């Protein structure tokens, strides 16, 4: 071992310095409403597994007021077995465990479904990936540097980090 490297190693051990070059990366994600709906509809799928990971620091969920409003609107249409109070509890938990963003600019219209543009705006602002079961509607997101992945792809990334 060269002299300089040996000296550095001795100093590091003397002062309790440890070298850890392995960087941890916490993905920043925006859940499309269809992911949350799927998670609350069935406990058997990938969406439910991801929802169960909220608050575990495996990923950083990004939200905005328009997204929470859409979650509430869609989830309270009577298609789930949960009561409105239970849905409120889920949304409160998501809000408590997420990073909140205000959007001060609009990139509209960009996507195939203009009702999804606010998700793209949130992803741009928060530098996050969009997680959706409907990847086809978000094809143009790449033009703004936003990655769009399925819940299964996110789960694979979390379970098999590279």
List the total number of helices.
7
CATH homolog superfamily:
5'-nuclease
- Overall SS class: alpha/beta
N-to-C series of helices and strands? HEHHEHHEHEEH
Please explain how this structure is put together.
By secondary structure, the protein is an alpha/beta fold. It has one domain (28-159): 5'-nuclease (Rossmann fold). It contains seven helices and five strands, in the order αβααβααβαββα. The chain has helices at 3-14, 33-41, 46-53, 65-75, 84-97, 117-126, 151-159, and strands at 28-31, 60-64, 99-101, 129-131, 148-149. The chain has a five-stranded parallel beta sheet, sandwiched between helices. α2 packs across α3. The longest helix is centred in the middle third of the chain and has 14 residues, at 84-97. The protein is globular and about 70 Å long.
Characteristic terms for this protein:
single chain; 162 residues; alpha/beta; Rossmann fold; 5-stranded parallel sheet; 7 helices
SSE blueprint and pairings:
Blueprint: H1 3-14, E1 28-31, H2 33-41, H3 46-53, E2 60-64, H4 65-75, H5 84-97, E3 99-101, H6 117-126, E4 129-131, E5 148-149, H7 151-159
Parallel strand pairs: 1-2, 1-4, 2-3, 4-5
Helix pairs in contact: 2-3, 3-7, 4-5
Task: Give a short synopsis of this structure.
The protein is α/β, with parallel strands linked by helices.
């Amino acid at each position: 071992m060269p002299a300089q490297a040996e000296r550095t190693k001795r100093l590091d051990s003397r002062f309790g310095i440890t070298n850890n070059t392995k960087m941890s990366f916490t993905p920043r994600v925006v859940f499309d409403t269809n992911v949350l709906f799927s998670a609350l509809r069935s406990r058997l799928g990938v969406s439910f597994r991801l929802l169960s990971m909220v608050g575990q620091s495996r990923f950083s969920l990004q939200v905005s007021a328009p997204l929470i409003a859409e979650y509430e609107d869609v989830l309270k249409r009577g298609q789930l077995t949960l009561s409105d109070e239970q849905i409120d509890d889920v949304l409160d938990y998501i809000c408590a465990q997420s990073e909140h963003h205000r959007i001060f600019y609009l990139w509209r219209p960009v996507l195939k479904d203009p009702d999804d543009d606010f998700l793209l705006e949130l992803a741009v602002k928060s530098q996050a990936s969009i997680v959706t079961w409907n990847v086809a509607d978000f094809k143009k997101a790449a033009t703004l540097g936003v990655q769009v992945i399925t819940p299964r792809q996110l789960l694979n990334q979390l379970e098999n980090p590279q």
